[in-house]
Amino acid sequence: MESISHWINGSVSTEKSDRTGDVYNPATGEISAKVNFATNQTVDQAVTVATKAFTEWRHSSLTKRTQVLFAFRELVNQNKEKLAALITNEHGKVLSDASGEVTRGLEVVEFACGIPHLLKGGFSEEVSTGVDVYSIRQPLGPVAIISPFNFPAMVPMWFFPIAIACGNTVIVKPSEKDPSAIMLVAQLLKQAGLPDGVFNVVHGDKVAVDALLTHPGIKAVSFVGSTPIAKYVYESGTKAGKRVQALGGAKNHMIVLPDADLNLAADAAINAGFGSAGERCMAISAIVAVEPIADKLIEKIKERALKIKTGDGTKGADMGPLVTKVHRDKVASYIAAGEKEGAKIVFDGRDVKVDSEGFWLGPTLFDQVKPNMSIYLEEIFGPVLSVIRVKSYDEALKLVNDHQYGNGTAIFTNDGGAARRFQNEVEVGMVGINVPIPVPMAYFSFGGWKNSLFGDSHAHGTEGVHFFTRGKVVTSRWLDPSHGGINLGFPQNT
Ligand code: NAD
């Protein structure tokens, strides 16, 4: 049985672990590896190494940093298939989705290659006679990245390329459900020339997370995961004096107005609802149909959904299994709850037949969903779509704005005025117009509102650079002997 251990100071840790986690291949239901869980001592060792590495890395030239990132980009491209296979084997998503997540992560590496430009400060000459003022941004120190199971490569890549480019050192605590992809990433960073200790990985559960949240050597925490844990991480990390950004769960609505292109909307509902088996924070989960189009739209979605082949992601299926049996059962229990609460099942994923013991659940569509039902109120994080029928745009908007989550949303319409009004009025961080999932673009920042984000910095883009640096303003006066060495005029009371 393969054993996966921590990556500290440029190599795999040989430490014996009392506690381990099972890693599954969700398509077969078999355990594929055991992952070591970090103790407080493991985390302390990683922080000590990252602190030591910081003393040199923070003084590395911007050229050196970008050379490492350019080399890393090449290596990830060369190893993309290998990375995608690791992701599919432990997460279950189909290979094309796995490869797509690596591509999205690489875009942040490419963005971080522009760090010499991004770190340029401001300069004001002669604020007083002979006095200049300028601003610089400096790294924080060792930072922690705690990531969820659903994007084991991309989510860490939202953060570490920028953190490293800004001169910080990093400790990643990946999800214990799919820990292998980040280990290959660590090897590729080393191969790219990153000095040992700048990038470290500790595996584990709450013990490792708590140790990172309270360790005085950790200066900032970037977290992505479910809302209750995001809130906990934000509260604990900030209480310990750290800078924290914690991205949480989602319940993304897609509003379909009566004038929308229903074929486009149905295609979007299928891709955004059932892609990656709905295990995406930008998945559409609630379709708000503004009457009279609901019947027609449901028919079109059904037509398409019945063609989706659920099966092993390495063997040409359209949709893979869910990540674990526990998660599959939880999603199935939401379907049972929806049925009990009176929603109408149009097609039922519990009936899916796949020839293996994997964690299978096919696509499910509910109609007649009401805003007080659990399948509407809570994040399901599986291939389950709910249709809510409403009479007007205002009713649709109120549903979105009243929901506790505000990660992403989409509107389908041919009315530019309505779309513009929606983008202005909706209380959600990321909006798609005739686009189901507004995908993360590296040079914009990514993050939601309300219970989908705790903290005030979104991920990557210029907000990422800001998060991983702190500002300093320098006021400078140099006496100039060639002009008499006298330089007066700076106001005494400023
Ligand atoms: P999760 O909250 O269970 O786990 C996330 C991380 O927290 C993991 O590393 C895990 O080991 C750790 N963790 C779990 N329980 C903990 C505890 N009690 N104390 C401390 N740490 C703990 O999330 P998940 O199931 O891995 O991922 C799915 C969730 O992530 C969904 O809610 C999804 O919406 C969310 N997500 C959000 C975004 C976003 O951008 N907002 C992106 C991807 C995923």
UniProtKB/TrEMBL annotation:
Its EC number is 1.2.1.27. Keywords: NAD, Oxidoreductase. One of its GO terms (molecular function) is methylmalonate-semialdehyde dehydrogenase (acylating, NAD) activity. Residues 16-474 form the Aldehyde dehydrogenase domain. Residues 1-14 have a biased composition (Polar residues). Residues 1-22 are annotated as: Disordered. CDD domains: ALDH_F6_MMSDH. Pfam families: Aldedh (PF00171). One of its GO terms (biological process) is L-valine catabolic process. This is methylmalonate-semialdehyde dehydrogenase (CoA acylating). It comes from Candidatus Nanopelagicus hibericus.
